[in-house]
Amino acid sequence: MVYLWQKQYAHTLTEMERAITLDPDNAYGYAYAWRAEASEVLRLNPQFSLEVHKQRMPIKDPAVLERHIEALRKVGLK
Fold this sequence. Notes:
The chain is an all-alpha fold. Helix 2 packs antiparallel against helix 3 (31-44). It has helices at 2-5, 9-22, 31-44, 50-56, 62-74. It is globular. It starts with a helix and ends with a helix. The chain contains five helices and no strands.
């Protein structure tokens, strides 16, 4: 959360992915942080695509990658 408050969005995303990997059952508890991240992503890149993002993510475990994409989808990214 400190990274998010300091607007260090790359670190925020990394730490949120790590948190979800460590505790996937609590992934939705992180939704408020993801919403802030999503609005910043869209501000910086209005053409953002989850499909492109999915192809570029270095997450090797397909289940973890799908949880990540689903979390982003739930906060409004497409």
